[in-house]
Amino acid sequence: MNFSKTLINWYLQNKRSLPWRETNEPYQIWLSEIILQQTRVVQGKPYYDAFLSHFPTVFDLANATEEKVLKLWQGLGYYSRARNLHTTAKYIVNELNGIFPQNYKELLVLKGVGEYTAAAIASFSYNEPVAVVDGNVFRVLSRVFGITSDIAIANTKKEFQQLAQELLPEKYPALFNQAIMEFGALQCVPKSPNCPTCVFNDSCFALEKKCVAELPIKSKKIKVTHRYFNYVIIRDSSDGFVVVKREGKGIWFNLYEFTLLENIQKKSLAEVVEEIRVKFNSNEIILKNEKELVHKLSHQHLHIHFFELKFNHKIEGALSIDELVKLPFPIVIHNFIASNYL
Fold this sequence. Notes:
iron-sulfur; single chain; 4Fe-4S; DNA damage; 7 strands; EC 3.2.2.31; alpha+beta; DNA repair; 2 domains; 5-stranded mixed beta sheet
């Protein structure tokens, strides 16, 4: 079996038409790779288009405010990616005169760029023969070649990296890297892949051993914590809203939110209402959602209720709804605002 040749032939016949595949411009490829971390192509492409529209060059991105960058990123999650994107753009402009590093090792210096992203940019932009290893590559190689090492263990990455590098044709590194990732995304998918139509069905270890669903092996399970968020929406007499920017470490850093009362354990609605009444000295408390909203993050489930308090005086710093919608919010709050106040 000539794995690389078969894989590339499959790719040339089945690849999706995607804008970042039509260029070797490192800025555009970097942008696409950061957006597509933890994000499916169908979700990420509109964000990629929006970022290129607002920030056609790395100089435009570097000169933007963080608030504007976060607003455009709103809804993608993992907001540290957006902050790193902005920081790196400023570094490239201010320290490197707007010129991207031109090899794998130098790309690794950039904030937010790990081994996979550096390999992707190096191969796609500069045709450097360095193999990419991501979730798709783990899955394809483990199934086809029968690698049963636990990918949750750090040393396993080296095993996959070595094999991917051996398979990589030095003349066509970009083509091979695109091909293996596309094969994992379209053909060798995590659940119920269509093995009868697979170009490797006569040589695939996992298909022969009937263990496709078990590979790759990953032992660690994510421990999910539960948090209880009670948002107090303070409105003044001119329909201004009080919002605050989240600070410190943790989720949603530098995004905006309403006044938050967080409980370690779940409380009854009656208990929460009483807590709000005492804290804000208000008897007019409107529960906006009787059924809690559950917002699922990778390691946390947020159980959210919204309560509105209306005051009959003006509050300094309160924002109109037009001002409010220009700010970056966590998507769950943005959607709540859109449903209730727009």
